[in-house]
Amino acid sequence: MATVEDQKLRTRSCRVSLMEPLLPQPRSGRDFAYVTILWTEDFVDNAIVWATGLAASGSAFRRICIVARGKIARSKLGILSRCCCDIDFADPIQAPAFSTSRSSRYEFVLTKLRVLQLDRKGLRKIVMMDADTLVLQNVDELFWLPSPSATVNKDTLMGEMDKPKLSAGVMVLEPDSEKFDQLLADLHYEDRGTFSQFVEQDLLDAYFNHTYNIIPLTYNLYPELLDIMPFLHHDDQWEPSSNWSLPLDHGVKVVHLWHLFNPFQTEAYKGAQYLQMSARLVHKQMWKWYTLFWDLHQKGLERGAPQEYPKWKQQCAERSQAFGRHSQRFVPVLGTSTEIQICRHVDGLAW
């Protein structure tokens, strides 16, 4: 039987436990933020979709785009800023010479680690997301997960790995400049053979060493998983010509339109256009997601360039007259060149 002293001790212990800060709560709307990182012009259009999607979902927290200094045209950043994202500049971090990232568009992917320095800007917690993610529902609940939390990569989910491997596509982090310094120091001591093209992901995986909390796959869904996980399918009466409204799916929160599934990679990779069309034909959801993708992009672009957008839209219609009724399928995009506007067919064709 518990004595009076035992009861007092338990009461005191409970009070202490309740006083301990388990998870940081926002003192204001500026304590938490969604963050993406841009180190190349390849993903500026994607960032417009990402940020516009978060805004459309009714998210309560701001959006920050960390931009590698000197890597993206100011005119495009102006559009991104007016559209939907606070711009924060950071010095780019080049991948080490022994990494396969060094000779690819991921050469400066380590710049993503700069998110850990956001404690200097007063941020207490962030949800880091790749720019090529498509938000389908409000995901503010992620801020109340413990840090670090992360999804695992598609190879883990498809049973191709003997142990879980972290995906940096969606992560919950508490910025800490000391961790940033430690990660860069670790870069020089890691086994060079462990680094893939996504060197920042490998580095974070080694640093956290399976001590992170795993976020459900529906917060970072790779389209390939639709082929092997039937429970992800959501069949409704939606047709390609239908209007959309959020939330789009009952289960899937965020789709990661990475690599060949990225609509803005159809020029860089010849197989991307065919893969995306095939995915649409096999999975009805993909039609819906790509329709939403382009709708969000055009809404964001119009918001970011309200004076220029109608002119760009008209130019695309005029340049594609030879396609007849399909000319309306061509829309303006910022593109990856120094020119600020080109036309892109929403099903993959481009000039």
TrEMBL record:
Annotated Gene3D superfamilies: Spore Coat Polysaccharide Biosynthesis Protein SpsA, Chain A
A single GO molecular function term of this UniProt record: glycosyltransferase activity
Superkingdom classification of source: Eukaryota
InterPro entries: Glyco_trans_8, GNT1/Glycosyltrans_8, Nucleotide-diphossugar_trans
Name the UniProt record assigns to this protein: GOLS1 protein
Species in which this protein is naturally found: Symbiodinium pilosum
